[in-house]
Amino acid sequence: MNDAFCGIVIEYREYREHDALLSVLRDDGVIIKISAKGIQKVKSKNAPACQLFTYSRWYLNYRETSTMQSLKSAEILESYRHIREDLIKQSIAAYFCEMILYSHFETPFAFDLLKHALDILKSQDDPMVILCLFQVIVNRMHGIEMQCDGCVRCGTTKGIYAISLKDGGFICKMCAKGYDKVYSSKDLKCFRLLNKAQLEHYDILKEIGGFRFEHFEQLYAFFEEYAGIPIKSIQFLRILKDMS
């Protein structure tokens, strides 16, 4: 039996001399494991469609009882060439894929989120807005939300001064402790906007601007603290940030 579907490569692992093992996020949100034989050979026709974060149409030699399917052929629907030409964007795309892979959502929204995030990333000069927005949406999908409507310790909406990772949100100046992270009022506004936003609000956030890698790091800190899922590709993002 042959089975065909559309999906994005979210994991690529070399296997043996010429093969690879792939994880592909199907357009219905299900993650399919695929054995792709011979795609590391120079003359492989399937190799371009099997690269990380490529959106392709897949044809499998499907076995219902197997957890690893065999690739028959694949054709590119979107290669995201403009992402591959930019090292920072390429690293962000790899981060998106790893985050989706290890979050194990397997819902249609997970596919829509990744596809739309990649579509935005390929066409924008400044990738920080979509990086921050992607992270805050993933956090929300894990049930992790920074409390931004007032001080999490006393409830006041005045004099907001810092963010507490331990207590999960905004802190006023009167309640602030030495281990809380102090931010400017502009930065705190950025966090509040992000935590209220959905993917469809990207253009509004882009117009407002002012989003930085430091904002992403704080959002990731919440993910790391409360989801407890290690994401290796963030290390390369940090290296690139330090080099820029």
Structural class of the helices, strands and pairings?
alpha+beta
Radius of gyration: 20 Å
**Helix content class:** 25-40%
Report low-confidence residues grouped into runs of 5 or more.
none
Q: What is the string of helix and strand elements?
A: EEEEEHHHHEEEHHHH
Number of strands: 8
Mean pLDDT over all positions: 95
Roughly what fraction of the amino acids lie in strands?
A: 15-25%
Total helices: the number is: 8
Strand order of the largest sheet: 1-2-3-5-4
Kindly give the count of domains.
2
Gross morphology is elongated
Distance between the termini: 50 Å
Major β-sheet, in short? Answer: 5 strands, mixed, barrel
Features:
three-stranded antiparallel sheet, alpha+beta, RecO, 244 residues, OB fold (Dihydrolipoamide Acetyltransferase, E2P), ARFGAP/RecO, DNA repair, elongated, DNA repair protein RecO, 8 helices, DNA damage
Q: Could you please describe the fold and organization of this structure?
A:
This protein is α+β, with helices and mostly antiparallel strands. It has 2 domains: 2-79, Nucleic acid-binding proteins (OB fold (Dihydrolipoamide Acetyltransferase, E2P), Beta Barrel); 82-145 and 182-243. Helix content is 39%, strand content 23%. The protein is built from 8 helices and 8 strands, in the order βββββααααβββαααα. It has helices at 81-84, 87-103, 108-123, 128-141, 185-196, 202-208, 213-226, 234-243, and strands spanning 2-15, 19-26, 31-36, 55-61, 68-78, 160-164, 169-172, 181-182. It has a 5-stranded mixed barrel. A 3-stranded antiparallel beta sheet has the order 7-6-8, with no helix packed on it. Helix 2 runs antiparallel to helix 8 (234-243). The mean pLDDT is 95. This is DNA repair protein RecO.
